[in-house]
């Protein structure tokens, strides 16, 4: 056999799972576990860590059974195996035992390369689960989550899911499964396509994001967090115009607190708010604050009809503010 996809892998005397995407590796292992159990509910299962397993233990869990009982042996983290276990596995792969399904999981490290080559040359099935980085591949992954469940999903809904959750494949997959569950039709009813509105309804219900949360993160210089919150806010339906207005108000408060001799009373702020803004103001230079205020003014102009893509306008503003905070 040869390389197979995680969703197509089937039990065999030896199966190799390799790569750096934990979600797909785990799915492949779970699929094998399910298929083996379906064939024999009484199967004996051994979950082992390569770093803690000796050649003797390998022989024990794979030794011929007197009654021919089925066994599933999963060994994780092959990159941590010692030389003795790697040699024992190389020998075993070349002459596996009947009734045993041995699943070996390797995280893509250099160690254990000879074993991997031996497995591939033996004709055993192997799954390669590399991280999904390209946008088109993330779209394809999302679409496949629904097509395997025999459900349709609108293109803009796919894009919205990837925009919001594409940085974490496990979170993206979990959200897809939640959508499938939430939009399950009643018995005897036909399932309609999943729409952008369905995505927005799910996101609005579980992501407590406000315009001020985005502004707080950006003004605090937390660029990655601010952009993630921005994606959630957009999916939750926060309009770009009031979003930019929230940034303007926040920065205005920081600027007022930064004024020489300013007090809570002189700027008309509650004591607690003035203390917070004054603390934040100490992290900004005059040049940086001016650049941030200019970025907000430009974004305000853009989202009110002067740029074609208001969402990109807001994203650019967030990035500019985070960078302005670092100006010295």
TrEMBL record:
Pfam families: DNA_pol3_delta (PF06144). Its EC number is 2.7.7.7. It catalyses: DNA(n) + a 2'-deoxyribonucleoside 5'-triphosphate = DNA(n+1) + diphosphate. GO terms for molecular function: DNA binding; DNA-directed DNA polymerase activity. Keywords: DNA replication, DNA-directed DNA polymerase, Nucleotidyltransferase, Transferase. GO terms for biological process: DNA-templated DNA replication. The keyword Signal does not apply. It comes from the Bacteria. One of its GO terms (cellular component) is DNA polymerase III complex. Residues 16-121 form the DNA polymerase III delta N-terminal domain. SUPFAM superfamilies: P-loop containing nucleoside triphosphate hydrolases, post-AAA+ oligomerization domain-like. NCBIfam families: holA. Belongs to the DNA polymerase HolA subunit family. This is DNA polymerase III subunit delta. It comes from Helcobacillus massiliensis.
């Amino acid at each position: 056999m040869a390389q197979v996809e995680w969703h197509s892998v089937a039990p065999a005397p030896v199966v190799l799972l390799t790569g750096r995407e934990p979600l797909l590796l785990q799915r492949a292992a779970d699929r094998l576990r399910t298929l083996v159990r379906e064939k024999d509910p009484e199967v004996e299962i051994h979950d082992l860590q390569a770093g803690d397993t000796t050649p003797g233990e390998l022989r024990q869990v794979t030794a011929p059974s007197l009654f021919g009982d089925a066994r599933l042996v999963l060994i994780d983290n092959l990159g941590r195996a010692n030389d003795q276990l790697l040699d024992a596995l190389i020998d075993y792969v070349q002459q596996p035992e009947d009734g045993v399904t041995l699943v070996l999981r390797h995280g893509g490290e250099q160690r254990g390369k000879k074993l991997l080559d031996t497995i591939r040359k033996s004709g055993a099935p192997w799954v390669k689960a590399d991280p999904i980085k390209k946008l088109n591949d993330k779209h394809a992954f999302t679409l496949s989550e629904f097509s395997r469940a025999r459900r349709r999903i609108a293109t803009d809904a796919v894009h919205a899911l990837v925009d919001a959750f594409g940085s974490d494949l496990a979170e993206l997959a979990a959200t897809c499964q939640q959508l499938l569950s939430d939009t399950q039709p009643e018995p005897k009813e036909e399932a309609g396509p999943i729409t952008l509105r369905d995505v927005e309804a799910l996101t609005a219900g579980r992501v407590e994001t406000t315009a001020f949360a985005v502004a707080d993160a950006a003004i605090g210089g937390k660029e990655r967090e601010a952009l993630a919150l921005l994606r959630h806010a957009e999916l939750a339906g926060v309009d770009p115009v009031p979003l930019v207005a929230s940034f303007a108000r926040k920065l205005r408060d920081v600027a007022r607190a930064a004024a020489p001799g300013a007090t809570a009373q002189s700027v008309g702020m509650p004591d607690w708010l003035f203390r917070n803004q004054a603390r934040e103001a100490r992290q900004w230079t005059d040049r940086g604050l001016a650049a941030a205020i200019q970025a907000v003014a430009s974004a305000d102009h853009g989202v009110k009809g002067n740029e074609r893509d208001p969402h990109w306008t807001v994203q650019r503003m967030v990035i500019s503010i985070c960078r302005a905070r670092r100006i010295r």
